[in-house]
Design a protein that fits this description.
Deoxyribonuclease I, Chain A, alpha+beta, 5 helices, globular, six-stranded mixed beta sheet
Length: 281
């Protein structure tokens, strides 16, 4: 299975290049974030003509997640247990849920397409919401893996966290001033390991950005950041045979500000020699 994650930053704007990428790179399952549309507005036809079925969770013109798959999908979930909601000026446990999570079972693998809250600023209620959201994700993931030991599970998407200083090439993002690099955010990201998932791409590709802001020539200057990840349970991680970050997708006409991240997995068993191919596109 070739599993990809991509914050497409409006699927209706970028449907052609999204489908072209999926077909060209032989992607079996594509998790998308920030689709920015309701299900009835999603461009299903282009995916279906390419051989994909699609599950969509979107509530308005913001956020939104989707999964396109060549393989049958089942057990579709539009939130994880305990996922908090958010609305400006609305505090408490009954805040409305945003369209930030979509989970499916596909070929025996639980795949979650996730769009983690941005946080906005260190003193914004959205930052507190982000930390609560990540804590709930950790708890829910741990419970799912405890209930189904050995489940191949992948949390994929835009995490809006820069885990290491080496992942930050943007001089405008500074610890103590900016979100994405604050100690609590990084701690929340690393705490997901306690739930039983680890970054399956970094061991193969220790370097590489996945996002470049549209402003101030960030991409030509390579002032990017790494915030898009594929985190897998132990059984998923053991099946990974390759990984790639597709930097070229940041080029061309109307690109997303993010690029796809891909993991190739073989649940039939890893090679005996443990020789894992390393790919950087």
């Amino acid at each position: 299975m070739r599993l990809a994650t991509w914050n497409v930053n409006s699927i209706r704007t970028r449907v052609a290049r999204t489908v072209e990428f999926a077909v060209r790179e032989d992607i079996d399952v594509l998790a998308m974030q920030e689709i920015k549309c309701k299900p009835e507005q999603f461009p299903y036809a282009a995916f279906e003509e390419a051989g994909y079925q699609v599950e969509v969770h979107g509530l308005n013109q913001w956020n939104g997640v989707a999964i396109a798959s060549r393989l049958p999908m089942s057990d579709v979930r539009t939130s994880f247990d305990g996922m908090p909601g958010f609305a400006k000026g609305h505090e408490g446990p009954d805040a409305p849920l945003e369209a930030r999570a979509l989970g499916v079972m596909v070929d025996g693998v639980r795949v979650w397409s996730l769009y983690v809250p941005n946080g906005r600023s260190l003193n914004d209620p959205h930052y507190t919401y982000k930390l609560h959201w990540l804590e709930a994700l950790k708890t829910s993931t741990a419970a799912e893996l405890a209930a189904t030991p050995g489940l191949p599970l992948a949390l994929v998407g835009d995490f809006n966290i820069i885990p290491f200083d080496s992942d930050n090439g943007d001089p405008d993002i500074v610890e103590g001033v900016s979100t994405h690099v604050s100690p609590p955010e990084r701690a929340a990201f690393f705490a997901l390991a306690d739930a039983g998932v680890t970054d399956v791409v970094r061991p193969l590709l220790p370097e590489g950005y996945t996002y470049w802001d549209y402003q101030r020539l960030k991409f030509p200057r390579n002032e990017g950041i790494r915030i898009d990840f594929i985190l897998g349970s132990s059984s998923f991680a053991d099946a990974v045979t390759g990984a790639s970050i597709h930097r070229e997708e940041r080029k061309g006409e109307q690109p997303s500000d993010h690029v796809p991240v891909v993991a190739e997995i073989d649940l039939g068993g890893a090679d005996d020699d443990g020789d894992l191919p390393m790919i950087f596109s």
